[in-house]
Amino acid sequence: MPLVALTGGIASGKSTIAARLAEHGAVIVDADRIVRDVQSAGSPVLAAIAGAFGERMLRPDGSLDRAALGAEVFGDDAAIARLNAIVHPAVRAESARRFAEAFAADPRAVVVYDVPLLVEARVDDPWELIVVAHAPAEVRERRLVELRGLTAAEAAARLASQVPDEARLRIADVVIHTDGTVDDTLRQVDELWERLTEHLDRRAARA
C-alpha cells in the first residue's frame, strides 16, 4: 500500500507531475481540494474560522470568503497558526479517510498525496516516498507573473511566505526538476513511475 507524498513550492510544476502520475494509474488525493471541502458552507471548520476571525470571513451565501481570510492572515504568523490549528486536524482526518478508501478499492493502488504544506504539517507521516517538484525561485516567480498575472512584488511575496526550497529538498527521496521543458519533466515522472512499480513488484514477490 504505497503512499507517496508529492510536494513543491508555488508554481513548481506539481500539478503537471500529479496529472502524469494519474495517467499512469495513481490515485491522486489533492490536499487543496480537501481544504476546500472541509471548509464548505455549514461545516464545523468554517464555523470555527468565523468564530476565530469574525463573521466577515463568510459570504452572504454562507461560504468562505477566501480573499478576506487570506488578507486577514497573510504575513501574520500568529493568525496563520490559529488558522492551521483549525484546518489541519480536519484535513488530516479527511485525507486518512480518502487514503483508506483508495486502498480498500485496490490494495495495490499507488496513492499520491498532492500536498503543498508537507514540510509544515505532514513530514512525519509514514510516506513510502517523498517526491519534490523543484524549480529555482526566479523561474517560479516568472511563472507567477507570466502565467498567473501577478505583479513581480506579489510573486516575490508569495515565494517569501513559503518555506525555503532547502527545507523541501532536505526531505526529498526524489527530486523532479521542472525548470526544463514539459517533456523533460514528464520523462522524469515516467522514470519515477517505473521505479515505483518495480519496487511494488519486488515487494509482492517477497510477500
Automatic annotation (TrEMBL):
Superkingdom assignment: Bacteria
Subcellular location: Cytoplasm
SUPFAM superfamilies xref list: P-loop containing nucleoside triphosphate hydrolases (SSF52540)
InterPro entries referenced in this protein's UniProt entry, alphabetically: Depp_CoAkinase (IPR001977), P-loop_NTPase (IPR027417)
One cellular component term from this protein's GO annotations in UniProt: cytoplasm
Pfam families (alphabetical): CoaE (PF01121)
Catalytic activity: 3'-dephospho-CoA + ATP = ADP + CoA + H(+)
Record's keyword terms, sorted: ATP-binding, Coenzyme A biosynthesis, Cytoplasm, Kinase, Nucleotide-binding, Transferase
GO molecular function, one term: ATP binding
HAMAP family: Dephospho_CoA_kinase
Family stated for the protein in its record: Belongs to the CoaE family.
Function of the protein: Catalyzes the phosphorylation of the 3'-hydroxyl group of dephosphocoenzyme A to form coenzyme A.
UniProt name for this protein: Dephospho-CoA kinase
Origin species: Microbacterium kyungheense
